[in-house]
Amino acid sequence: MASPTPTTRTAKTSKAPMESMHVTNFRYTASPHPTVECTVPGLSHESYDKDWIPRTSSLMWVDALTRYYVLHRPLDDQTEPSKQGDGVGSSSGISSQVAGLSLQTETGSAGQKLWSYEDTTRAFLNWGQFLKNAHSFGQYSELTMTKALYDREVSKWTLDLRFRLGFVGACSVTKICEYFARGKDGKNVLIWSNKYQQVAVDKKTRQPTRVPTWFKDKYQGKGCLSQAMVLRPFKKPEVTFCHPILVQYSDIDEYGHANWSAYIKWTTDAIHAAMLPDKQNGNGSCQTKGGRVLRSITKETLGRGLHKFQVTYFRECLEGDHVEVHLWEDGQPNQVLCCLVKSGEEICQIKLFYFDDDESL
């Protein structure tokens, strides 16, 4: 695997609007695993495509923003956290007042109370302190969607989040976020989860390094997973469907590089482009050879919804970069393999799994 190359750009968190994000039922529990539960804004009209299927990239934005919020919202070190959670979010009867923690607040211009980013070392998992010791690079991500996500009778305007520590390895930290909506029976139902892994990177050498000793001593062995994530790399064949992408301003996040969700958006666009008849049998260097590459993937497959995707990140993309999205199948039904190439080098690999016929709603 290529060494990670995190961006050298640093976001100015004082400009981030997360402190005014409408989050309720915020609760921290230390046992059995370090966990934050809260109710967060969910999907909006902009989260759906023309067929009213939730955009995967929108799920990733919701996930990124809520994780950012949780990892920056200060906990009160003087308050003993709850030892055992009672469930998730609003359906578990958690009070809208904060349980087991207090917040550092300041008065906003409109008189409302806003908490401050000043001391992020005291946030969940002391992540601010971690980032003072090392950079972090997103290595793997696995999003798993349930059929409830595609059920139009399940309201998704607000969601309950359960954010847990997964595993602390020698050089990596794995976390798990689960999102719940109110089901048709009035009970909470899981609609998607994200298991993702970040690698500690030395700020001077820009190479992977060990997690800080204090972090390892405090959190190793306390996560809900027994091992770190491992996604096996795969080899790109000579014959693929290739879709060119120009990285746009709208793909860029506050760190100055393409947001992690952009890679999935490009892949989704490429898959739909592969469904167009005039894209299947071209003779150009970026077209397939010998007919359709995605033989078992149809519009009906896409309509059943994406069940899971796994992403491995190698390199970043910047605005103006030219990227090739290569797609193919490996003989497994309802699966698509993808690699993204920039200047002849693979920068990302993605494996997508769609629901089977018998798993349709």
From TrEMBL:
Gene3D superfamilies (alphabetical): Hotdog Thioesterase
Region ranges (Disordered): 76-95
**SUPFAM superfamilies per the record?**
Thioesterase/thiol ester dehydrase-isomerase (SSF54637)
Q: Which residues form the Acyl-ACP thioesterase-like C-terminal domain?
A: 236-278
In this record, what's one Pfam family? Acyl-ACP_TE_C
Q: Mind telling me what this protein is named?
A: Acyl-ACP thioesterase-like C-terminal domain-containing protein
Q: What is the organism field in this record? A: Elysia chlorotica
Q: What is the lineage of its organism?
A: Eukaryota, Metazoa, Spiralia, Lophotrochozoa, Mollusca
